[in-house]
Amino acid sequence: DPPPLRSAHRIVLRLPHRAPLHADSLFGHLGATVVPGVERWHDGGLERTLRLTHAPGRVHLSPAVGHIRAVLTLLDLRDLTSAIHRCRALLDLDADPAAVDAHLGADPALGELVRRRPGVRLPGTVDPGEMAFRVVLGQQISTKAAATLTGRIVALVGEPVPDALDGAAPGVPARLFPTDDLGPGATEAGVVDYIDRALEGAYAEWQETYRLGLAEIEAAAVERHGVPFIDCGPTAQDALLAAMERGELSFAAPDPRAFFDLLLAHTQEGLFGDPVHGGNRGAVMWQLLGFPGVQPGYSAGEQLQTSPVRKPRRFTAAEIGKGRRPSPEQGG
Amino acid sequence: MASTEAAAAPAATGRGRGSDPTAADVCIVGLGAASGSAVHVLAEAGFRIVALEAGPWRTSDDYALDELRGSYHARAAMSDKFLAETPTWRRNTGEPTHPATFSLGRMINGVGGSYLHYGAWLRRFQPVEFRLRSHVLERYGEERLPEGTTLADWPVGYDDLEPYYGLAEQAMGVAGIPGNDRGLPVAGGNPFDGYRSSPYPLPPVRPCVGGQRFAAAATALGYHPFPVPVSLNTEPFEGRPACTYCGWCGGFGCFIDAKTTPALTTIPRAVRTGNLEVRTHCRALRINHDERGRAVSVDYLDARGERRTQRAGIVILSAYTFENVRLLLLSTSARFPRGLANNAGNVGRHFMTKQFANVNGLYEGESFNRYTGPAGQAVIFEDLNADNFDHGGLDFLGGATVSSEHQLQPIGLSRETLPPGVPRWGHRYKAHLLEHWNSIAVIRYQPSALPYARHRLDLDPHVRERSGLGLPVVRITYDLAPNEQRLAAFLEEKIEALHREMGATRIWRGPRWTGVCSSHDVGGLRMGLDPADSVVDPALMTHEVPNLFVLSGAVFPTCPGVNPSLTLQALVWRAAEGIVAAYRHGHPL
User: Fold this and answer.
1) What angle in degrees, to the nearest 10, is found between the helix axes of B565-584 and B158-172?
2) Which helix (H) or strand (E) holds B565?
3) Is the pTM value of this prediction over 0.90?
4) How far are the Cα atoms of A82, A97, B470 from residue B461, in angstroms, in the given order?
5) Which residue from A224, A323, B64, B410 has the fewest beta carbons nearer than 10 Å?
6) Which among B245, B377, B424 has CB closest to A297?
7) B67 and chain A: CB distance < 8 Å anywhere?
8) Residues on chain B touching A185 (C-beta within 8 angstroms)
9) How many whole angstroms separate alpha carbon B13 and alpha carbon B16?
């Protein structure tokens, strides 16, 4: 029998907190102590797994203006409240920073430090048992060594997170622009992160289309191969996508060809768009192409050059425009 | 006549306003490319103007060199209103509608309109285009007119517009090589140019490697290539800096104001008179008339979403083609049950659009570096345009501008036409892209399109805009006609020969159909002398409502294979002077 299909719920939340919050020290600590297999640092935040009452989950936490951005991936929505509580505990978001800073600021030794770094939090944990392990392991050795050691224990006895948490989304862009002998692909470019962010903002209107469309891809994968898309293997995945592109999969909604075109268009944006939008991570695709990124201008000589025109520095849209222009020394 | 002469004559002030102190002499709906090129004439003549603009007033600080935030393709982030009311489209009345598709990008909402992100090509139509029907009948006979075409002469000629072409070129700082100097040919310019009374204010754009290659092959084949005239500052112009050739302006706003638009020139000129009040984030809902059938006010939603009414002596409709048609059709009343100025049923008829199709060539191992400069660095020729070649033995009418493409952004390059056999995704797509993206030359043709009775705009009975106002969107009924198909086939063969002359190692055609919306969507509110067959007269006043004017490409009777912007500017500049003259001489409202 094929395993029951479980698709993940993706929920983006703003976790409010009282001001101030010294995000650099809080996330700096979290980033410096990541345990492989449980946690990873990417896109300016901490991503980690969660062991919840009804099913496992995953969260990505990053500082934003006036709040913490939390992207929760849950298999069971009944876990939502406890997941939020655990994230708040991890980041000490229920602290009263004014009272803390007033009290500690009065101390003659600490006062100046508190005034320089207001709103410092005391990182907590999502799981007291895990914290106990990490404290014991970390007592006598460096932070880095402790993380490595903890990671080994995770690898040895950790319970794997179900693939369903990844849904179909990570697999599709990775097949549309694969990682291969030619170099990095959609995975390295962070295309799924790009699409996730876009669906929260500019493409909010497509959320339902994605929800329905990805569920249809999963259903087709289970029907044809007995496993979710992510477990189908590249050949079967490509065959599924090709059938979808030709309109040969029967979707209730959306139209398979239209959804394929949408996924392809958004994948291209996540591959080649400006890194400021979360895709094309580190301008990896511009490097792969040899595209010089955004440049403030080109010379008459460069325009007549018959070999590729390179530039000493590759800019992004964040560095040029909006009244900003790099100096000639920068731009070349 | 120079418009500034009228500045001392506030004769118009007060006309038609009655006793309402908040009424204006003129209410303009949409302060974009069209009205933005005429409003200074009215303001300097003393007319008190209120302009309702649905978008914001942007500055160069608002433009990002970023395809996702700043361009008219991808997300089209500067097109909020346009995206919320995207027209629907069907090929014929027998099929259901789909959302419209776009050859280039979406239109922009904001002061200055889609000039903010246009590719800056500013070109005159050839004289023959204004009397194409007569010309075809004289040279080839009536039997050569394709079935169903409603081809008509313009009621204004090239000579009528020539001085205004010159005024617009000066105002826009056009850079180029004129084809002639008061009739005497100029080397390197377009030999098919009509008579020119004035030169271009700025020298042409720089050459680039792809353009040179194209120009050499075109010349060898007997064509006459020249750098496309553009409103790019090839030198500092009127206090704004020279273009740096960053390559991010076709489809983007210029981040240093080196691309001239009405938002930098004629609109500020109008504001400086003190006679133009610009109300941004205000969208018009309907145009009202009085018991005599004259336009009297415009209902609109203000920036806070409150419904308001602006009274005015003259109403100028100058949003984009689709919205102009829609507003007239939505402004129904007992007197105009089919929409304002539509008792003859002509609103929405004779709609035209064009396809921006291409033929690509692969030049293995070579580098064209198209990312090193703007779309305005194209090299073009008009030997295959209009009736510059004998159509006697051919099976179609019309022609096209043929151009070498310049400017290339990374998302754009990932979506270029692929050679046959290369899939759209996966390893082989990736291999093609990585190896060849900088070795492909794109030759585009911008074809003419004849008007046909079956091509029209109306209101979609089923689809509403996303604003929540519940208004129907425009429905486009349009297909590529057999005449235009045959023209495309002819051009594809000619361009393949160009690629062979350039030394391409592989040549492939892009799709002939590139999208129903072209940014050159014209017609729908045809200009003509006969009220039975047109909506506005040569003064751009509607036949049925004598103080309602339409300043828009929607009035074009034909759609030549040339960018329409400069002709639109000349036409509306002339119309604005006509309004000033008429009202100064006591023309009754």
Assistant:
1) 110
2) helix B565-584
3) no
4) 49, 58, 12
5) A323
6) B245
7) yes
8) 430
9) 9
